[in-house]
Specification:
GO molecular function: D-xylose 1-dehydrogenase (NADP+) activity; nucleotide binding
CATH architecture of the largest domain: 2-Layer Sandwich
Strand content: 25-35%
Order of helices and strands: EEHEHEHEHEHEHEHEEEEEEEHH
Structural class: alpha/beta
Catalytic activity: D-xylose + NADP(+) = D-xylono-1,5-lactone + NADPH + H(+)
Number of helices: 9
Enzyme class: oxidoreductase
EC number: 1.1.1.179
Shape: globular
CATH topology of the largest domain: Dihydrodipicolinate Reductase, domain 2
CATH superfamily of the largest domain: Dihydrodipicolinate Reductase, domain 2
Family: Belongs to the Gfo/Idh/MocA family.
Radius of gyration: 20 Å
Number of strands: 15
């Protein structure tokens, strides 16, 4: 559907946790540069009571109010839903995606896409067979700030030849206060600082070290060699360090930590080149706010970007535009890239000794 010259998508929201609350809050923001119209059509929860509570808290002024379902299956079968947003824990993504695909629904599924590459391939094979759009919700890749850095580094060669990227994402997730069934401590739910926050450090390594895919969903990208080590607590990695090495010598030094008292300073990422550096700042590696470009022998230049809300709407706009164009995967986050990232995460977990029951 189109309205005011922009595509319109009707969303079915699966799960009513924190990430879903952030996503819907961004969808209803008034934005002057919005590329699409977003309608929150239905909310699917594990119970009607939770779903109604979610609307009362996060969508109190929605008109018309979204339909509330006490099951996810009802979201998938609703003919008025164009795209399903999946905000459940990692361990449920495979089932949620396969169920939605079986009903012919387009999907935006939170990162990490699944628990491992085998599960990811199963989902993407099903999507291809059914002919539906599917994208991993790696929202940071869609920020205008990220697009600007990619242009400066890889197209304009503003810092010369890139040699190294260093990125850290550490935050205190208060693991000591979590029960054994928490998604952050239960391995069967995908508990892993790597999958939860380390994927952002890995993503920044890719952003800085590799040119963007250029919109070609069939384009193949080099799979770097990886060296990794993790610190485990009851089998769960609370800290992971990764070194990526490319054939020409480029390196990414990437880390994550979810332990007590840990917090990465605002300058969380540094991209180093033969003729300068870029330092990226933000509250966390997932939500960059600005960056500083420094050429050798020249003054620093700071780039700042307006970001109302959190920034989930950029990936949502991209989904609407891709579907309106008849495409089944994203040029920014294509299926091959989701699989490659999952393979890198699998190898990191293997070296770090992290094993999920689903492996």
């Amino acid at each position: 559907m189109t309205s005011n010259g922009k595509p319109t998508v009707r969303w079915g929201i699966v799960a009513t946790g924190l990430i879903s609350s952030w996503f819907v809050a961004d969808l209803i923001l008034e934005r002057k540069d919005a590329a699409a119209n977003h309608i929150i059509q239905v909310i699917g929860s594990s119970s009607l009571q939770k779903g109604k509570g979610f609307i009362a808290q996060h969508l109190p002024n929605a008109s018309p109010a979204p339909t509330v379902y006490g099951s996810y299956e009802q979201v998938y079968s609703d003919p008025n839903v164009d795209v399903v947003y999946i905000g459940t824990p990692h361990a449920f993504h495979k089932k949620n995606c396969l169920d939605a695909i079986s009903h012919g629904k387009n999907i935006l599924c939170e990162k990490t896409f699944t628990l491992n590459a085998t599960e990811a391939k199963e989902v993407l094979d099903a999507a291809q067979a059914k002919g539906v759009f599917v994208m991993e919700a790696m929202w940071t890749r869609f920020f205008p700030l990220v697009k600007s850095i990619q242009k400066l580094v890889h197209e304009d060669k503003a810092i010369g030849r890139v040699h190294r990227v260093i990125c850290d994402f550490a935050m205190d997730q208060h693991l000591e206060s979590k029960g054994p069934n928490s998604r952050l401590k239960n391995l069967s739910l995908g508990a892993s600082s790597l999958l939860d926050i380390g994927i952002y450090s890995l993503t920044w390594g890719i952003i800085g070290l590799e040119p963007p895919l250029g919109g070609s969903i069939k384009e193949l990208t080099e799979k770097p060699t990886i060296l990794a080590m993790s610190t485990l607590s009851d089998g769960v990695d609370i800290a992971t360090s990764m070194i990526l090495r490319y054939q020409d010598g480029r390196q990414g030094i990437l880390s994550s930590h979810s332990g007590t008292g840990m917090k990465t300073p605002p300058s969380f990422c540094r991209i180093e080149g033969s003729e300068g550096t870029i330092v990226v700042d933000g509250g966390a590696a997932s939500v960059p706010n600005s960056f500083v470009l420094k050429n050798n022998g020249q003054e620093e230049k700071k780039f700042e970007f307006e970001r109302p809300g959190r920034g989930f709407y950029w990936e949502a706009d991209a989904v609407a535009l891709e579907i309106a164009a008849g495409r089944k995967e994203s040029g920014t986050m294509p299926w091959a890239e989701t699989l490659r990232v999952m393979q890198l995460l699998d190898e990191t977990r293997r070296q770090g000794g992290v094993i999920f029951p689903q492996d």
